[in-house]
Every structure is written in structure tokens, then in C-alpha cells.
């Protein structure tokens, strides 16, 4: 009976953690394939999810977002909020935006979790027109 109860609770908590995106995630540079930064995703009091750069793993040419068009213009990359306003819908997080600090462009964003990986999709208009990245959990 104890084994059955333990198995039930282990399964229950693994299902709960499966759909959560809060925590620290390592981003990978699309061009080099090397780790680029650590993004910390957190939930604000408005019930939405946000992500900020908590560590830079590659020294950027410019430590500020010179090409950003909004309140992030010329702000330091370290501590910059690059994911904004995601809402949880089932096992997916949607309705928010993600900003590429390298280009300053902001895209619509969807995030889903598969184990220790996040599938992050940034797009313009339709989800089919965009690009995806895989972020890895930081332990």
C-alpha cells in the first residue's frame, strides 16, 4: 500500500511540475549553438508570467539594448525583461511577447514545457511564421 501511495504522489507532483515554466532556463545562441544566457521566468501578481535575463554567458558586443523600440531602449541586457504577459492555457503559455535583445524586435510568444526543456516560439501574425528555440532547465 505504501508503494502505491508513493507512486501516486510521485506521479501527481510530476504532472504538476510538467506544466510549470517558473525557474531558470539556459538559452542557446541560434548561430553558434552555445549557451547564451540564463532567463528567469516568474509569475507576477497579475497572474501572468514574465522572464528576465539573470545572467549573460556570452559577453555581448553592446551590454545595452540599443535597437529596442520601447521602454527597454538603451537599458542593460542584464536584468532586462524579455518575456512579458504570458497566460497559462492548459499545458501552454500564450498571449505574451518575447523580445530579441540582439535585434530589439518584439514578437508574439508561446511556450510549452517538455520535461527539462522549454519550447519557446516567437512569431509575427501567425504561429507558422516565426522561429523556435529550446531552452534548458538550470539545476
Keywords for this entry:
single chain; 139 residues; mainly beta; Lipocalin; 1 helix; 12% helix; globular; disordered N terminus
The count of helical stretches stands at 1
Q: What structural class do helix, strand and pairing data support? A: mainly beta
Number of strands: 8
Morphology: globular
H and E order: HEEEEEEEE
Strand content: over 45%
With strands numbered from the N-terminus, the spatial order across the biggest sheet is: 1-2-3-4-5-6-7-8
The CATH architecture would be Beta Barrel
Helix content: 10-25%
Q: What do the pLDDT scores average to?
A: 88
The major sheet is characterized as: 8 strands, antiparallel, barrel
Low-confidence blocks of residues:
1-18
CATH topology: Lipocalin
CATH class: Mainly Beta
Computed CA radius of gyration, to the nearest angstrom: 16 Å
Number of domains: 1
In angstroms, what separates the terminal alpha carbons? 33 Å
Amino acid at each position: 500500500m505504501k508503494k502505491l501511495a508513493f507512486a501516486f504522489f510521485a506521479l501527481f507532483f510530476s504532472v504538476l511540475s510538467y506544466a510549470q515554466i517558473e525557474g531558470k532556463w539556459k538559452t542557446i545562441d541560434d548561430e553558434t549553438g552555445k549557451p547564451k544566457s540564463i532567463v528567469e521566468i516568474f509569475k507576477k501578481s497579475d497572474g501572468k508570467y514574465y522572464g528576465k535575463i539573470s545572467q549573460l554567458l556570452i559577453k555581448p558586443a553592446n551590454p545595452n539594448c540599443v535597437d529596442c523600440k520601447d521602454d527597454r531602449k538603451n537599458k542593460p541586457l542584464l536584468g532586462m525583461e524579455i518575456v512579458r504577459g504570458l497566460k497559462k492555457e492548459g499545458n501552454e503559455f500564450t498571449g505574451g511577447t518575447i523580445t530579441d535583445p540582439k535585434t530589439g524586435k518584439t514578437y508574439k510568444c508561446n511556450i510549452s514545457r517538455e520535461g527539462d526543456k522549454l519550447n519557446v516560439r516567437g512569431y509575427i501574425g501567425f504561429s507558422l511564421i516565426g522561429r523556435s528555440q529550446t531552452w534548458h532547465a538550470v539545476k
